[in-house]
């Protein structure tokens, strides 16, 4: 599959490593330009590109930049992507890092709803509570008792199914955590955030979440 990854840090770098290892055709971009991604490209075989080119022809695009950088992404970012492109949002709002986002703090928008407003495209929220290192180290075949499960939220059923299939191919089970308005259930400091467990525990943790934004994640 042709996959574009915007952000080549902890999460974007490790997704590039694993997705290329699985044989996917990965284009990867960061803020500083493709010439700064030659080491990652040599290591993985991914194609380093400018942000504007990352989504070209892609069936899945992963946006994995700090939330504060989302408004800086170029408009038309998804122009040229496949018509049915699924856009994965891995983002989390850390006010200390991202600055105050009024729409999240005051209007109660979920972090991913805010992000999709900037992208102008629906997103599927996934990997936001996954340790970057686990993407490399903790993938397991289907049926393995140690296989971890990741919550996946999104409004578009077909896009969500495509993303869940990719995550399962990456070596993780998935749990449907609802739509984007429900995705507070997997935001920072919820029971499922950072939980390294299987389907049953992840399902239980999602059910136990509180819609109240935790004090540590308010500005
Ligand atoms: N780290 C984790 O374990 C983890 C786990 C789950 C979710 N997350 C969330 O996922 C997101 C990414 O986290 P991360 O830890 O991977 O971040 P990171 O290591 O800081 O990497 C961020 C990447 O985004 C790129 N970037 C920044 N601004 C950009 C722009 N305007 N255009 C294009 N690329 C831009 C950076 O490029 P340059 O280096 O060139 O600036 C860098 O490659 C965050 O919202 C984070 O909260 C992180």
Automatic annotation (TrEMBL):
Q: Which InterPro entries match?
A: NAD(P)-bd_dom_sf (IPR036291), P5C_Rdtase_cat_N (IPR028939)
- Which superkingdom heads the taxonomic lineage of this protein's source? Bacteria
SUPFAM superfamilies in alphabetical order: NAD(P)-binding Rossmann-fold domains
Indicate the segments forming the Pyrroline-5-carboxylate reductase catalytic N-terminal domain, all copies.
2-93
The protein's name in its UniProt record: NAD(P)-binding domain-containing protein
- Provide the species name: Streptomyces similanensis
């Amino acid at each position: 599959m042709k996959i574009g990854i915007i952000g080549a840090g902890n999460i974007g770098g490790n997704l590039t490593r694993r997705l290329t290892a699985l044989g996917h055709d990965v284009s990867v971009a960061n803020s500083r330009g493709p010439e700064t991604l030659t080491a990652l490209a040599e290591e993985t075989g991914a194609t380093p590109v400018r942000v504007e080119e990352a989504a070209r022809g892609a069936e899945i695009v992963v946006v994995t930049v700090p939330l504060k950088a989302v408004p800086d992404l170029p408009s038309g970012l998804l122009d040229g992507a496949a018509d049915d492109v699924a856009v994965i949002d891995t983002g989390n709002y850390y006010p200390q890092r991202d600055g105050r986002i009024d729409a999240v703090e005051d209007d109660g928008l979920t972090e991913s709803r805010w992000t999709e407003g900037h992208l102008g495209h629906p997103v599927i929220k996934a990997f936001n509570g996954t340790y970057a290192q686990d993407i490399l180290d903790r993938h397991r075949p289907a049926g393995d008792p140690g296989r971890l499960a990741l919550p996946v939220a999104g409004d578009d059923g077909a896009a969500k199914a495509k993303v869940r299939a990719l995550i399962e191919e990456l070596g993780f089970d998935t749990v449907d955590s609802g739509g984007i308005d429900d995705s507070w259930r997997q935001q920072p400091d919820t029971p499922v955030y950072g939980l390294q467990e299987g389907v049953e525990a992840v399902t239980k943790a999602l059910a136990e979440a509180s819609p109240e934004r935790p004090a540590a994640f308010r500005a």
